[in-house]
Amino acid sequence: MTDNNEIHFRKATSEDRDHIWEIIQQAIDRRRKDGSSQWQNGYPNLGTIESDISKNFGYVLTIDGRIAVYTALIQNDEPAYSNIDGKWLSDGEFVVVHRVAVHNDFSGKGLVKILFDKIEDFTKSCGIQSIKVDTNFDNIAMLKILESKGYTYCGEVFLSGGIRKAFEKIII
């Protein structure tokens, strides 16, 4: 990305659904080709994305008006996180990051790091203490991003039929 690209972070709308679903399908295929079991069991599916949008959980990062990255941000609600094999850094309010996916045209351009910057800004603006996120053990790209963005490994959670590595970053 160059300094000339116009980058925006906004809530997803129902008009974005088909573009988001295309991105999710590309990410599912990328995970499969990488040999990962993550997202290979029918989740996330179109219904997941429609639910995210209807509940105002869906967010997109756009580059020059094109949707490049999708994520779901959920405040204070992830039942699986109450049973961590380990310990969270905090027990205050938090934003959960789920379903991070990048369009193939924008893959490898550092946009997930920009996305996490935007999520941190969003979290601060809401007066929320921390961000919690989990990922599959074999999602090397996401593990590297979380490390580079200063997230602390807190333990393991059981989510979507498997054990996930759980991370947290204190924001305020």
What order do the helices and strands come in, and which of them pair?
Elements: E1 7-11, H1 17-33, H2 46-54, E2 58-63, E3 66-75, E4 85-86, E5 94-102, H3 111-125, E6 130-135, H4 140-148, E7 152-159, E8 162-170
Parallel strand pairs: 5-6
Antiparallel strand pairs: 1-2, 2-3, 3-5, 4-7, 6-8, 7-8
Structure characteristics:
32% strand, 4 helices, Acyl_CoA_acyltransferase, Aminopeptidase, GNAT_dom, Acetyltransferase (GNAT) family protein, eight-stranded mixed beta sheet, alpha+beta, 172 residues
Give an overview in words.
- The chain is of the alpha+beta class and 172 residues long.
- The chain has one domain: 3-Layer(aba) Sandwich (Aminopeptidase), CATH 3.40.630.
- It has 4 helices and 8 strands; from the N terminus they run E-H-H-E-E-E-E-H-E-H-E-E.
- The chain has helices at 17-33, 46-54, 111-125, 140-148; strands at 7-11, 58-63, 66-75, 85-86, 94-102, 130-135, 152-159, 162-170.
- An 8-stranded mixed sheet has the order 1-2-3-5-6-8-7-4.
- Strand 2 (58-63) and strand 3 (66-75) form a beta hairpin.
- The longest helix has 17 residues, at 17-33.
- The model has no long low-confidence stretch (mean pLDDT 95).
Number of E-type strands: 8
Specify the number of helices. 4
What structural class do helix, strand and pairing data support?
Answer: alpha+beta
**N-to-C series of helices and strands:** EHHEEEEHEHEE
Let me know the largest β-sheet.
8 strands, mixed
Overall shape: globular
Which architecture does the CATH hierarchy give at level 2?
Answer: 3-Layer(aba) Sandwich
Instruction: Round the mean pLDDT to the nearest integer and report it.
Output: 95
* Overall structural domain count: 1
Any low-confidence stretches, pLDDT <50, length ≥5?
Answer: none
Question: If you compute it from the alpha carbons, what radius of gyration comes out, rounded to the nearest whole angstrom?
Answer: 15 Å
Under CATH, the homologous superfamily reads Gcn5-related N-acetyltransferase (GNAT)
Helix content: 25-40%
CATH T-level fold name: Aminopeptidase
Numbering strands along the chain, what is their spatial order in the largest sheet?
1-2-3-5-6-8-7-4
CATH class: Alpha Beta
Distance between the termini: 29 Å
- Please indicate the percent range of residues in DSSP E strands (runs of 2 or more): 25-35%
